[in-house]
Amino acid sequence: MGIRIIWQQMILFLCHYVGVKGEFCMAQINVTNLTFYYEGSFDNIFENVSFSIDTNWKLGFVGRNGKGKTTFLNLLLGKYEYKGIISTSVVFDYFPYQILPENLGQCSADFVEQLKPGCELWRVICELDKLDVDAEVLYRPFETLSHGERTKVMLAVLFSGENDFLLIDEPTNHLDRDSRETVKAYLSQKKGFILVSHDRDLLDACIDHVLVLNRNSIEVQSGNFSSWWENKSRKDAFSRMENEKHRKEIQKLKQASEQTRRWADKNESTKIGFDPVKEPERCISTRAYIGAKTKKMQSRVKQMEMRIDREIEEKEGLLQDIENPVDLKMFPLEHHKKTLILADKYGLRYPDAVSSVFSDLSFAVQQGERVFLNGKNGCGKSSLIKAILAKAADSAEAGEGIGQEHVNVIEEGTLQTASGLVISYINQDTSFLRGSIKEFCANKNLEESLFCALLRQLDMERVQFSKNMEEFSEGQKKKVLIAAGLMTPAHLYIWDEPLNYIDVFSRMQIENLLLSYQPTMLVVEHDVKFREKIATKVIEM
Questions:
Q1: What's the first-to-final CA gap in the chain, in angstroms?
Q2: CB proximity list for 30: less than 8 A, separation 6 or greater
Q3: Pick from 168-182, 295-309, 421-435, 496-510: least confident
Q4: DSSP-assigned letters across all residues of 234-297
Q5: Radius of gyration of the chain from Cα atoms?
Q6: Whether the Cβ atoms of residue 165 and residue 138 lie closer than 8 Å to each other
Q7: Higher-pLDDT residue of 318, 52
Q8: How wide is the angle at C-alpha 317 spanned by C-alphas 313 and 323, nearest 5°?
Q9: What's residue 452's pLDDT?
Q10: What is the tens place of the pLDDT at every residue in 192-216?
Q11: What is the mean pLDDT of residues 53-80?
């Protein structure tokens, strides 16, 4: 053991003074006329897409759930056949690595070569040091590592190579605040990667370019997420103004065209069939004059119609990429008591455990408050939620599945919930979602048409409704849970990491909803921007 420690110290010394990752020459990834669709699907994920990126960029990849972000990374890795050209001289590597069942009981040091062929352990140790992780995690069974430790080990392996262009897919899901801050600081020092993330704080800290999958186009822009969003907001505002100007111009032209057409038709009808007694001033020779006048009016109508077509053509496309989220609705109930949850020096301990999960915790959740639980992974946030759900399970209106969260624990202090408390609960687990939307609605006693309408408002494509939920992306599965939670009238909304995998635009949409309706909530969520906007109280655990 002492030899191992000395060896690790020598490695870190070498890393500090020599450096372990050479700078690779700037190359480009060129995408030309890329078209791709999944077999059996009627819709293209990408259609004639073209763009270029440099391999020394720190590129953030942004888009709505189901738009094809992970699909594009898999195309770069050569996993699917496609039409068009993707040309580059670099080698790609992908995070997260797939950990095989037989690897779970092994130490990471024993299978890093399987994850990244040619990987040298001393380089991994150097990267772990930059992630503030002791190298001893490499010599513990992988299944015993926390989410944060697993993420950091895989990132260390990922960045231990040279001249690879790295594809990083959602590295901060399930990580607590401290681990997120560590990963954020680590990635901000790196370059040569594509980072798929919906965490605005992470994107702002780590990227210098943005690749955005808009609704109907793809754009590449320098800057971080906030600078791109500011530019997009200005562009969208200008497009709306231009669209309104074109709309009014088209309306005026249509009215003038219709009036001129009526005049032309009326004038044409006077060429023949007049009464000489009533109209003695007219004669047959006036027909040529009337015909010429009518022809001039009809020509004017055609010119107006051509102008209308030009205005419509200019108008088309102005709004195609605008993010204009629909205002969502929810149905919070008002309870007769002001205090819905009260904890006094409360703690939990598992029967066989030596120490408590947490102890001496005192707080209250008042009606109208949005309380966030904050702390490291393993500090007991989910255990506290399960205890609250178990307390509320005695109420007949607590909601389906609430009692199932009860676990066998030893309690310290007191925890009280208001009587008759109706709770809407969103779990972080999506693995139970099986079958069709129709079956899900039937099991949850939800109105299917309203549920699908809500999913559409969360920007889920109608084509998804005909699929089984096993085929949904993780973000789409989370939207199913959120939609079900929003449709449930409740006194208290308990959300346990609801935003994992949810796209940035839907996060903003949900923020606006919660600020508008101000429901009483108890939330576990590590998205810093979301917490800053929504929380009225933060409980540190």
A1: 35
A2: 52, 85, 86, 87, 88
A3: 295-309
A4: HHHHHHHHHHHHHHHHHHHHHHHHHHHHHHHHHHHTTSS---TTT-TT--TTHHHHHHHHHHHH
A5: 31
A6: no
A7: 52
A8: 155
A9: 94
A10: 999 999 999 999 999 999 999 887 7
A11: 92
The span from the CA of 253 to the CA of 308, in Å, is: 7
Q: What is the pLDDT of residue 428?
A: 86
Amino acid in the structure at residue 459: D
- H or E element in which residue 47 lies: strand 46-54
Whether residue 135 contacts residue 128, with contact meaning beta carbons closer than 8 Å, is answered with: yes
Structure tokens at 48: 């004639």
**Cα 175 from Cα 147, distance rounded (Å):** 6
**What's the CA gap between 415 and 419, in Å, rounded?**
13
Which tokens in the block code for residue 39? Answer: 């077999």
- Tell me what pLDDT residue 265 has: 66
Give CA–CA dist 374/177, Å, rounded. Answer: 8
Cross-strand bridge partners of residue 220: 211
Please check whether residue 298 is in contact with residue 264, taking contact to mean a CB–CB distance below 8 angstroms. Answer: yes
Closest residue by Cα to residue 155 from 406, 145, 425, 316: 145
The region that residue 518 occupies, defined by phi over 0 for left and psi between -120 and 50 for alpha, beta otherwise, is left
Q: What is the DSSP string of 189-219?
A: T--SEEEE---HHHHHHH-SEEEEE-SS-EE
pLDDT digits (tens, 9 = 90+) for 241-265: 877 776 777 677 677 667 767 766 6
Rounded (5°) CA angle 113-116-120: 60
Say yes or no to pLDDT of 307 above 80: no
Residues 6+ apart with CB under 8 A from 460: 65, 66, 476, 479
- State percent of the chain over pLDDT 90: 58
Write down the pTM of the prediction: 0.72
Q: How many CA atoms lie within 13 A of 146 on its CB side?
A: 13
The closest of 351, 294, 264, 343 to 522, measured between CA atoms, is: 343
